[in-house]
Design brief:
Length: about 500
């Protein structure tokens, strides 16, 4: 196997949204394959047809596209190991299950649902009732057309050991292993069987998944042994926890917020920031590692190409990782600040145009927002005062630092209004000069004048940008209309 091309896969079940745990598994499997110039396969594991959610496959494909994962084989592009929709491989799974029966490592089970329900509480599982049925009795059931499942015949004593490339040697006592179902009564294979057969036939030699499978993997290793196949490398990732609003840490779930990738994108998180952050949940780069050049790559910020260059199994940890929204938002904020202006504008201006009047300077507004927002969604929330004139709040005019009061601001606005109205050039320099000259002539501090003007046109304390910048965004007509309105309201 050491001479084989590295092949990994991502095999999600279309039973819901693409959550962060799925995404991390897909990312790490992809990085491992590409870091070794290998193959990455996408396979849809839909044999549990009852739980399949309509549209879930489209969500999976869209998510992989957004994060930049391009699979070498899979749905839509094909490949020499297809089909890649597991339900379409039903005949293959049945063939190998019956072969396993012939080899003596599996058996037909004819127990009814009623009997299984009766023994469940007393046995804690299946009591192996059909494990040693006589050949004549088995044939009698088959001839009668009795429904059956096929179960794996686990060894009853001893232990099974496998080597995990992250966790080391793992041993499980065979008495702890249930005779699991391989083929269900409906003819479809269970995950426990189908993924083993498909991984082998597709040439997957590195199986990467969550640590919750560490102690169930011996069941799969025994299937490889039963067929006489070489076991793949197993790589189990550390547990992924979440932190709730109160700071409590537990296994990541919906109660920790939006654990769906597409939900995060909808909330304004950049796909590249999400990927970068998730890559560091359970993995850390090693200094000096990499093939692009000999220079140190920033130890927190990575492009997909840099992640591929730096990734190795040796960088994986075993301790649980915590998905922290505060840390994700920090990453997202940094990514937004580093975005090229044209790219940022293309992502944020369309949403601004949905809420703001068409007369404003959208390019300037985007420029003011870029260093001030943590998610793209915050942009529209931050410009509520531009979208419409907010209700009057006289207390906003009061500022201790600038020593302003409602009365002082009213006087400033009444005196500055005709000066601004007479300003020939509506530019930042010209507007600033008007305010600066008024400060000199009146003896008032420039800060108090800027405060009065900014509150009059924004009608809120915190704004993206100062007085002159906001006047440029709003334009002459809207700015003057708002100042006139403020003067009238403060005189009321």
């Amino acid at each position: 196997m050491n001479n084989q091309i590295t092949c990994t896969r991502f095999a999600p079940s279309p039973t819901g949204f693409m959550h962060i745990g799925n995404l991390r598994t897909a990312l790490f499997a992809y990085l491992l394959a590409k870091s070794k110039n290998g193959r990455f396969i996408l396979r849809i594991e839909d044999t549990d047809q009852v739980r399949e959610v309509p549209g879930a496959v489209d969500v999976i494909l869209k998510t992989l596209e957004l994060i930049g994962i391009k699979y070498d084989e899979g749905p839509g592009i094909g490949g020499e190991h297809g089909p890649y929709i597991q339900s379409q491989r039903k005949h293959i799974h049945q063939e190998y299950a019956h072969k396993l029966v012939e080899l003596g490592h599996a058996y037909y089970c004819f127990c009814t649902k009623e009997r299984l329900a009766e023994i469940h509480d007393s046995c804690g599982g299946y009591d192996r009732h059909c494990r040693d049925l006589a050949a004549e009795e088995i044939q009698h059931h088959l001839d009668r057309g009795d429904p059956y499942v096929i179960r794996q015949k686990m060894p009853l004593d001893g232990s099974t050991t496998y080597v995990d490339d992250n966790w080391g040697e793992i041993t499980v006592e065979n008495k702890e292993l249930q005779d699991q179902i391989l083929i269900k009564a409906d003819g479809f294979a269970t995950y426990n069987f189908a993924h083993v057969v498909d991984d082998y036939l597709m040439g997957v030699n590195y199986v990467m998944r969550g640590s919750e499978y560490v102690y169930s993997t011996p069941k799969y290793a025994l299937l490889y042994d039963a067929f006489g196949w070489e076991r793949p490398h197993y790589v189990h990732l550390p547990l992924l926890n979440g932190k709730d609003s109160e700071g409590n840490i537990a296994k990541l779930s919906k109660r920790h917020g939006s654990v769906s990738f597409l939900d995060l994108v909808e909330e304004g998180y950049l796909p590249e920031a999400i990927v970068n952050y998730i890559a560091l949940l359970g993995w850390s780069p090693s200094k000096g590692q990499g093939r692009i050049n000999n220079e140190d790559i920033n130890e927190e910020f990575f492009t997909m190409d840099e992640l591929i260059d730096r990734f190795s199994i040796q960088g994986l940890g075993q301790s649980p990782s915590v998905f922290d929204y505060d840390k994700l938002k920090w990453f997202n904020t940094e990514y937004i600040r580093r975005m090229p202006v044209d790219l940022f504008n293309s992502r944020v201006i369309p949403s601004l145009k949905e809420v703001c009047p068409p007369t404003i300077d959208f390019a300037l507004l985007a420029q003011l927002l870029q260093p001030r927002i943590g998610t793209l969604a915050e942009a529209t929330a931050m410009v509520d005062f531009i979208a419409s004139r907010l209700p009057l709040d006289k207390e906003a005019y009061v500022n201790k630092k600038n020593k302003t009061t409602v009365e002082s601001c009213r006087a400033v606005l009444e005196q500055i209004e005709p000066l601004l109205d007479a300003c020939e050039e509506w530019t930042n320099d010209a507007l600033y000069a008007v305010l600066k000259n008024y400060s000199t002539d009146s003896g008032l501090k420039l800060g108090s004048i800027l405060w009065a003007v900014r509150i009059a046109i924004a009608r809120k304390i915190v704004t993206p940008g100062g007085a002159t910048e906001l006047m440029l965004v709003l334009g002459r007509d809207e700015t003057m209309a708002r100042i006139k309105q403020a003067c009238a309201e403060l005189n009321d």
